Structures are given as C-alpha cells and as structure tokens.
Amino acid sequence: xxxxxxxxxxxxxxxxxxxxxxxxxxxxxxxxxxxxxxxxxxxxxxxxxxxxxxxxxxxxxxxxxxxxxxxxxxxxxxxxxxxxxxxxxxxxxxxxxxxxxxxxxxxxxxxxxxxxxxxxxxxxxxxxxxxxxxxxxxxxxxxxxxxxxxxxxxxxxxxxxxxxxxxxxxxxxxxxxxxxxxxxxxxxxxxxxxxxxxxxxxxxxxxxxxxxxxxxxxxxxxxxxxxxxxxxxxxxxxxxxxxxxxx
Length: 247
What we know:
Deoxyribonuclease I, Chain A, 4 helices
C-alpha cells in the first residue's frame, strides 16, 4: 500500500502536476491520499475534471472520499490563489474488494481551520483474511499526537475483540516518526524524510501497522510532483498462531 499528500495538485513552489498520473505511479493495491482538491460551483457540482475519478478508472480501483472543508478559493501555502470554490478532501483507493467503510470524526484542533477525519476501509484479501486500512490527515498544529491517540482509542472501541482485524494506519500525521512512535503502539514501516519533497527535512508521512502485520519492504518513493514524497510498504499478514505469547 502507499500514501501521498497531494498538496492540492501543486508542488512546494506552486508548480502544478498531473494528479492522476502521479497516483498511477505508486503501484499499490491500496492508496491513501490527503489534500485532494476539486473545483466545484455554488451547488457543489464539479466544474473541472476530477483527477481522483480519473485515477480510479485507470487503476481499476474503487475510491472513497471525505470532504474536509469547502472553501471559496484555494490558497494553501505555496499554491497560487484561485478564485474558484472547491472541496478539500482525503481519499482511499482500493483495487481489492471492500466489505466495510466508515468515517471517524476527529474534530477541529485549537487554532486549526478544518475538521479532521479518518477513513476506515476494510478490504478482503484472496486468502479470506480481512484487513482494516485507516487513512487520516492530522492537524498541523501541535496537538496532532492527541488526535492520533483519539483515533487509536476509537479503533479499539469499535466492538471488535482486540487483534480481531489486522490494522494499518497511513497518512500525513504532521509529526516526525519519533513522536508518532510514542503516540501509538503500532510499528513503523517506512523510515525516511518525506517533506519538503525538494529537500526533505522531516518524515511527516507514515504507514504504521499492528502486530498482526509484518513488513516485507518499505520505502520513501521519488517525487511525483507534490511537496510531499510518497511512501509505500509491502506487507504480509501473519497467521493468528504467530501472535501466541506476543504482548
């Protein structure tokens, strides 16, 4: 699986890139994206091509999208201001069958300007095993570790026995890996700086897994145009008996 913050289709210095082509380069069964942008009119209808729909069609994947905010114009840091209204969203692409989908609301952090969410997508593997993939974009304020802990608690209180469904959490956590490691009892898969893409200084983008999952390989991928670098991990689900004695 892979994760990428799209920065609304612009690079660090405001240069646009082909979002659909960038997503197709990631070569993953499940792709989590953050900061997608779709121009819409006053009624909420798209007034431009939808790059996520285009990517889903090319990938043969189903796409699940959650709108975080509707803005009268686009004016994120490093992006040329646009007079067109639009929707800022997070999304999950899956070329694997999806048996369940839900959204967890994480609220608005102090001094933040958008609410935060997590998407929980349960995918079915050919072996019959189900895996829970969680996509999120946490606040850029200092309270992102608190949001990650809230997310962990919500996942633990969904009524399922502990360890029932192997779980992966991916996205832009807006915190470096050591802080993420202290905020959640999941294992890091990717280790490497991801932002800014032109000269990475810190890892903000993560794929973390619970103890039911083993990392086969992982990497920070080359730039695809965004101000963040993509991350990708190849994972293997451990049989239940492998967890005997694990704490």
